[in-house]
Design a protein that fits this description.
single chain, alpha+beta, Umud Fragment, subunit A, 2 domains, 7-stranded antiparallel sheet, 4-stranded antiparallel sheet
């Protein structure tokens, strides 16, 4: 009887065929690829989140201590500043407060007479104003027939405009009696265009709007404490005619000639 022929198993010792091994190898490679992609995607998402957090912190630091923006909504500083001007405010110049505290970081300069400054007024909560600084501590200020006198001499103010009617008395100005040269006087009756002379005490400043006939400023609400300053207005980065009746004035009524102007 002829002997039986032995048939060799051409597969691996585990008995799998080549096609099965290939399919399993492909599936394993795909699984590893998906795992790497998921790990890479997770790492990318974490890095993106870190970047967003860092950018947010950097923005808050810059806004709190270096620069902020401010938009003009009234005509009290015309024609230096117009309604619809967007300002860059240098907070580092004269120092700034740490948010939510009474701590103030010193600036690299002092408030200067003639500066256009942004500040937090004492007479209105949650309001920020911009006016021109005209009186420093120790100054004597007076106005006669719309002319401002500083320490006895008339000031040259080419930026000032006058836009409306006759002079008038306002009872809000009575606070000035306590700062009159020579002491308080019961007969003192200040008006918009005629008041003083006043002596500015230590730690306080006198602010005026450039549009003298429409500005509610230190003449009415009083002296400003130095710690209330938020920064020095330095330039205009955007401007449009906010009072235009045309639709989309921020696109159709852009004042291109004012963009980039320095504030003087």
């Amino acid at each position: 009887m002829a002997g039986k022929r032995k048939v060799k198993n051409r597969g691996k010792p585990d008995g799998r065929t080549r096609s099965t091994r290939d399919r399993e190898a492909g599936a394993e490679a795909a699984r590893k690829g998906r795992k790497k992609t998921e790990e890479k995607g997770g790492a990318t998402g974490a890095e993106a989140l870190k970047l967003v957090i860092f950018a947010g912190i950097l923005f808050l630091v810059i806004r709190a201590f270096l620069f902020q923006t401010f938009v003009i909504t009234s005509g009290s500083m015309e024609n230096t500043l117009l309604v619809g001007d967007f300002l860059v405010v240098n907070r580092a110049a004269i120092g700034s407060r740490v948010p939510f505290t009474d701590i103030r970081i010193p600036g690299y300069s002092e408030p200067r007479r003639g500066d256009v400054l942004v500040f937090d007024p004492h007479h209105e909560v949650d309001m920020t104003l911009v006016k021109r600084l005209v009186g420093l501590p120790g100054d004597t200020l007076e106005m006669r027939e719309r002319v401002l006198y500083l320490n006895g001499g008339a000031r040259d103010e080419p930026y000032v405009v006058h836009t409306r009617g006759p002079d008038d008395f306002d009872p809000d100005m009575i606070w000035q009696r306590d700062y009159i040269v020579g002491g308080p006087r019961d007969d003192y009756r200040p008006t918009r265009d005629n008041w003083g002379p006043l002596v500015i005490p230590d730690g306080h400043y006198f602010m005026l709007g450039d549009n003298r006939d429409t500005s509610l400023d230190s003449r009415y609400w009083g002296l400003l404490e130095g710690w209330r300053f938020e920064g020095r207005a330095v330039g205009i980065y955007f401007s449009y005619n906010r009072g235009s009746p045309r639709p989309f004035p921020w696109i159709r009524e852009i004042r291109g000639s004012r963009i980039g102007d320095r504030i003087r």
